[in-house]
Amino acid sequence: MTNTKLSKKAFNEAKKVFPGGVNSPVRAFKNVNSLPVFIERGCGAYIYDLDGNKYIDYIGSWGPMILGHANKDVISSIQKSIKKSTSFGAPTLLETKLAKLIQKHFPSMEKMRMTSSGTEATMSAIRLARGCTGKDKIIKFEGCYHGHTDSLLVNAGSGAATFGVPSSPGIPKKLTELTYSLEYNNIEAVENCFKKNGSQIACVIVEPIAGNMNCIIPNNNFIKKLRFMCNKYKSILIFDEVMTGFRVSLGGAQKIYKVKPDITTLGKIVGGGMPIGVFGGKKKYMDKLSPSGPIYHAGTLSGNPIAMSAGIKTIELLSRKNFYNNLENKTKKLVIGLQNAAKKYNINIQVNYSGGMFGFFFTDKKNINNFNDVSNCNKILFEKFFKIMLSKGIYFAPSPFEAGFISSKHTIKDINFTIKSAEEAFKKISI
Question: 49, 51, 57, 240: which is the annotated catalytic residue?
């Protein structure tokens, strides 16, 4: 791949109407000091840019394209639905059907509400937690992303359990002072925070498998101890499974770790690639939402029939026998192949994976457990690797802080080609 003339032209035009030329920051390729490619279409495991370049896609719209791009059954469901109208702003049977499918695989979600994005889902879940407990403060973890809600865009303060500080202008400092930002996988920090402030903490929100500081797997008992601490201090445990829900298993991370949260947020895959978010949990909490309770939540496009149709068909297809076994086997083959290819040229990388989700890190550190570990990885090597792989038609996330994703449409041939290309990239980097 050498010609990106049309992508460059498109980016210059986009910068005239969008800040930074994009509608979501990571798309600008600033983390790899490059220019983005503009995508024209996708099919299966592949995407094609404006210049006709073909890429094996390991981003998959940041997770939801688990069935590959333009799945014919999902597209057919969307087409059938769209003929009736794009939106009603009124109840439909599709909403209930999708909710029951979700509930089947996420029994912790006794009742739920649809939203139009993961950000809306987490924002609403936190409001619900505060309303139900009468407490204002929350615990999140550094490096975990829960959408661009003001109270969640915070950096970790100094010490084990200090107040967060705004990580973006426009966010009132007093608002983020209600948020404790702690180190992921550090249960001692959580215990200390609860000991000092337990009576004020409404909830703990966590990615049970982190995907927004690349792919970070929780340590033994980290998730279980969060459940224990929330029980002890009568705080609500929120699992943000917007990324992991239906990605790492049919029942998400909570099925893998056998821990039931009080509230779960979902998105991405649940909409089959259409905009969607879901939050749900114990009936006693969910019934506090309007109109049955006093805590307000609304959304004109919540339960949109197009997203509902896409989600129903997607979950039906994901329920096929051995779907997730096959997906994880391909993921394992890819990450181990990358690691072995790097070793040939004395380049240190570590890999993490779960289900169809993975991450790789340029570091000699044996275990990557938190945001600080990721931040200390070799970003220069990542940038070099990314650019070479893109030139070979391999589309990884343009940031060392983002996870990668496998779809059911990736073939062993695709994975072998990726590993072979990586070996060539590592050879070039090592010179």
Answer: 240
Mean pLDDT of 178-198: 95
User: Could you tell me the CA-to-CA distances from 373 to 193, 382, 411 in Å, in that order?
Assistant: 22, 15, 32
Q: Can 324 be counted among the known catalytic residues?
A: no
N- to C-terminal Cα separation, the chain: 22
The pair of three-digit structure tokens given for residue 187, joined into one six-digit string: 């249960």
- Interatomic CA distance for residues 389 and 385, integer angstroms: 6
- C-alpha–C-alpha distance, residues 301 and 295, integer Å: 19
Least Cα distance to 172 among 152, 157, 150, 200 occurs for: 150
pLDDT tens-place string over residues 191-219: 999 999 999 999 999 999 999 999 999 99
The question of whether 287 is a catalytic residue gets the answer no
What count of other Cβ atoms lies within 10 Å of the Cβ of residue 364? 11
One of 135, 140, 268, 313 is an active-site residue; which one? 268
CATH topology identical between 5-70+321-430 and 72-318: no
Dist. CA 234–CA 264, nearest whole Å: 17
Percent of the chain with pLDDT over 90: 90
Catalytic residue among 145, 233, 257, 285, which? 145
pLDDT at 272 over 70: yes
Greater model confidence, 384 or 148: 384
Secondary structure in 3-state letters for 41-100: EEEECEEEECCCCEEEECCCCCCCCCCCECCHHHHHHHHHHHCCCCCCCCCCHHHHHHHH
- The amino acid at 194: F
For residue 40, which phi and psi values (nearest 5 degrees)? -100, -40
The CATH classification of domain 72-318, taken from the options 3.30.360.10, 3.40.190.290, 3.40.640.10, 3.40.50.300? 3.40.640.10
CATH class, domain 5-70+321-430, is alpha beta
Domain locations along the chain: 5-70+321-430, 72-318
Residues linked to residue 83 through DSSP beta bridges, in sequence order: none
Catalytic, 184? Answer no
Query: What predicted TM-score, i.e. pTM, was given to this entire model?
Result: 0.95
Confirm if 299 and 116 have CB atoms less than 8 A apart.
Answer: yes
Rounded-to-5 percentages of helix, strand, coil across the chain: 40, 20, 40
> Which residues, 6 or more positions from 98, have their beta carbon under 8 angstroms from its beta carbon?
114, 270, 308, 311, 312, 315
